Fold each of these.
Amino acid sequence: MTRIAVMSGKGGTGKTTAVASMAWYSEGLVLADCDVDAANLALTMRGRLRIKDDYRGAFKAVIDDRLCVECGKCEVNCVFGAISEFQVIDIRCEGCGACKVVCPAGAVRMELRKSGEVFVLDTDRGPMVYAELQPGESNSGKLVTMVRRLADGLSESDGLDTVLIDGPPGTGCPAIASITGVDLILAITEPSRSGEHDLMRLIELAHHFSIPICVAVNKWDLHPGLTGEIEESCRRLGVMVVGRIPYDPNVNKAMKAMHPLPSLFPNSPAALELHRIWKEIRTGAMERKGSGVVLNLE
Amino acid sequence: MACALAIALDRPMTFLDCDVEGANAHLFLRPAMHSREEVFVPCPMIDADRCDACGRCVKECQFGAMIQLGKKVKLMANLCHGCGVCRLVCPRTAITMTGRPVGIVHSGTAGPIRFYCGELRTGEALSVPIIRKIKEQRDDLVIIDCPPGTSCPAVESVEGSDFALLVTEPTPFGEHDLRGMITVCRRLGVPCGVVINRSSGDDAIIESLCGAEGVSILMRIPFDRKVAEAYAKGGTLLEAMPGIKDQLLDMFLDIERLCR
C-alpha cells in the first residue's frame, strides 16, 4: 500500500482541487477526505453510495436530575467547565467521565452519541471515504483515524495500491492523525506570507515525525518573488519542491461546476502541471513504500 | 479580514489570534512582541512505587492515554486531555496531577492594539488549552481571528463572543463550510453575519443559503487577479484595495447593531 497525504498548513491553498485532479489522472486508487470539519472532496468527485454509517465517537455525560443530590462534586472535578447548575453543557463536555466517577449518587451516566457520519462512495476512479463531523463536535482526530482505517481496508479489499489523502488545514490533532503512517506528504502552499508561515510549521511537523515531505507552490505566478523565497527556504531545509502550479481561472470554474479540473479543462495550465506533479510524487511515494512512520494515535 | 478590520478601526482594542495551528495575524499587524507565557495542561504523574498496575486508570481513560505494559502503567502524554479521571479512580493514590507545557502565548502591541497569539508546540495535538489561555484577555473591544473548521478549536474561539463574522467564498466548498459554521453559531447562541470573499458577481449560492438561514450578508470583496497579487505581496486588504476602509467601518456599525 502506498499512502500519500496532501496537506497545506493554511486552509484554502488548493488541496482539494489538487487531490481531485490527481485522482482524475490516476488509473485507480482509494481516496480519503480527512478534512472532516469541512469535507469538500465529495463536492467534486461524485459517485454511487456504497456505505453510510453513523460515527459515534463522543461520549457525553448525562445527569439524571431525579437521582442528583446537588452536591456539586461533578462541577468541581470537571476540568472542561462543562457542568453548571447540575446540568451538562453538551458542547463543552469531552466525555472523560470524571463526573460519573465522583458522583456519590450514581446520577451520571455516559451516553455514546452520534457525532457524525462516514461514507464510502464509488467514484469512477475508485472508492472514496469521507466523513462529516456534526458542526461543533469534538474528537475530529478520532474520526480521521476511522476514515484512514476504512481507506486502508478498501485498498486491500479492492486491490488498489494507492491511498490518496486530502488532509485538513493546521498542525493539530486531525492533521497529525492524517499524516501518521503515510509514505509521502505533498504540501500545497501559496505565495503569501501566511501560506509560507504555515508551510514552515507543517514541514516542522513532518520532520518532527520523520515523514518525508515535498512541496508544490500553487498560484505561484501571483508573486514570483515570494515563490522563489519559499522554494529557497525549502531547499535549505532539504525539502524537495516538486512543482509550480500557475494561477488559472479554470480552477474556480471547475470548482463551481463541481467537477475535477482536468475533466472540464484538460489542457488548462494548472491541470497539466498537476498531472506532472502526480506522476512525480506517485513514483516518489512508491519508492518509499512502507517507510511511513506509524504514530501511536487513537 | 480580522487584521484589516482592526487596522481600519484604528482605536484601542485587543486582538486575539486564536488560530494557533496557523497563526498569521502578526504577519499583517506586525506587533512589537514583548512577552511570552508558557501554557500548561494538567497531566498525570504516576508514582511507580505506589502503582500496582491494577489497570483502573487504563480502563477509565476515555482517550487511550494510559497503557498497561506488564506490571507498569505508562502515560501517552500526547493523547492525554488532562481530565484527571485516572487520579480520581486510582485506589492507591499513585497519581498526582502536574503541568505539561503544550505551547506559548505571545503578547505585544501594534499601535493602539494589544496583541496576543498562541503557538502550539510542534507535535502537540490539542490547541484548545492555548486558545483558552489567549481568551483570558478582556477589553471593551476584542477582535478574534478564529481557526478554520467547525470542531473544538473553532468552537472554543467563537464561544462567548457577541458576534461572529463568517468569511466565505461563492463556491460549493464555501457554501458547505459556511453552513456548518452557521450551525455552530446557533448552538453557541452567537449572532452572525457573512462576508463574501472572492465575490465574482454571481454569489447566488451564498445568497440563497443566507436567505434561508436568515443571516445577513454584510460585505462583498470582489475577486480579480490584481487584488490577489497585491494580497500575496503581504499587505492587508486595506493596501490591496484602497477605498475598502469605509466599507469596513460601515460594516462595523452594522455589526454593533446586530450584536446581542
Amino acid sequence: MRTRILGIASGAGIAVALYFALIYAPTEQTMGVLQRVFYFHLPQAILSYIAAFMVGFGSLMYLATRDLKWDRFAYCNAELGVLFTATTLITGMIWGRLAWNTWWAGDARTNLELILGLLYVGYLMLRGYLPEREKRARLSTVFGFLAVLDVPINYGAIYWWDTQHPKPVLGPRGGGADPDIKLAIYVSLITFTIVYAWLLTKRLGVARIEDEVGELEAAVETA
Amino acid sequence: MKPVAAIVFKDIAIEYKNKEAFSSMVLFGLLVVVVFSFAFEGSDRKALAPGMLWVAYSFAGILGLNRSLSMETDNDCLQGLLLSPMSRGDLYLGKVGGNLAFTMLAELVILPFFVILNNLAFDTSLIWIAGITLLGTLGFVAIGTTLSLISAQTRMKEVMLPVLQIPMTFPVILSAVQATSLVMSGDSSGVAFPLSLLGIFSTVYITASYFVFEYIVEE
C-alpha cells in the first residue's frame, strides 16, 4: 500500500517537476535553455550521496544487530546509488558538452561522482561473487562501511587537487537569486526524493522475497 | 605488541624462504615502468613520471597483497592463526606490518630503475620520494590487507581485489602523485597537505580495520 502511494506520488511529482523545470522557471540569461538540465542533475547528485550514507547506516546496523533486514537495506541503497550516480554523470556530461564543449572537464565534482559510482559497483560485484547468504551479508557490510569512510577523504583529496590546478571553466551553477529558479529546484528535489523512496520500498520488497525464496530452497535441499 | 611482531616475523621468514611475493612484485613493477617509458617516448617525462611511478607501485602492490593473503587461505593456515591466543586486531596489524615490509622493499628496488629509465636525477628529492612512498604504501596496505582478505573469500579472488582496492585507494594515489610531483619540481612548500591526507587515510583505515577485522575472519 505504502509503495503504491509513493508510486502514484512519484508519477504526479515528475509531471509537476517537469512543468516547473521546463515551463515555470525562467530561462537563465547566460546559459539559456541548457540550464534546465540542472533541475534534474542537482537532485540526482544529492541523492547519489544520500545513498552512500544509507549504505553506511545499513552496514553499521547489520554489524550491530545481525538482522538481514539491514543488509538488504544497505544493498538496495547501493543499487540506487549506481542508478543515481549514472544519471548524474549523464546529465552532467550533456551539460558539460554543450556548455564547456567537453564531455569530461575533469572537474572535482565529476571525478568524485565517478569514484563514488565505482565504489557502488565494487560493492555489488563483491556481493555477486559471494554465494553464501550470511557470508555475503557479513563481508559486503564490512566493505560498505569502509567505503563510506572513504567518501569524505576523497572529497578532501579531490578538492585540494582541483584548486591546485584551477580550471577556467567553473561555470554558473544555476540557483542564483531568482526565486522562481529556486522554487523549481526545490520542487524537483522533493520529487526525486519521493522517486527514490518509491524505488527503495519496491526494491526492498523484492529483496525480502528473494531471501525467502533462498531460505525455502535451502530447506528443500536439506529435507 | 608481541603477537603482532610474531606475525610480522613469520611472514618475513616465509618470504625469505620462497621470495614469491617480493620477486613477482619487483618484476611486475619494473615491467610496468618499462612499458610506460616506451609508451610515452618523446613526451614530457617529468610531468608524467609521478603518475607512472604510482601506477607501477599500486599494480605491484595489488599483486603482493593477493599473494600474501592467499598464502594464508590456500592451506587453511588462517584457521591456525585464528586458533592462536591473540586478538583479531593484532592479527590484522601483523599482516599490515608484513605487507608493508615487502611492498616497501619491492618499491625501493623499483625506484632507481624508474629514475634511470626516465632520465631523472639522483638527488635529495629521492629521499623525499622514499618518505612519500612509505606513507603512501602504509595507506595502501592498511586498506589492502582488509580488502584482500575479503576478496580471498570470494569465488573470483584475483579479480575482486583490484575492483575493490583501486577506487578505495583513490585518495592515496592522488595525494601521493601530487606530493611526488611537487617534490620532483623542487618546490616542496605545498607538500604538507597531501602528506597529512595520507596520514589521515592511514589512521582512519588502520583504526577502522582493527575493529572490523573480526567480522571478516569469523567462521
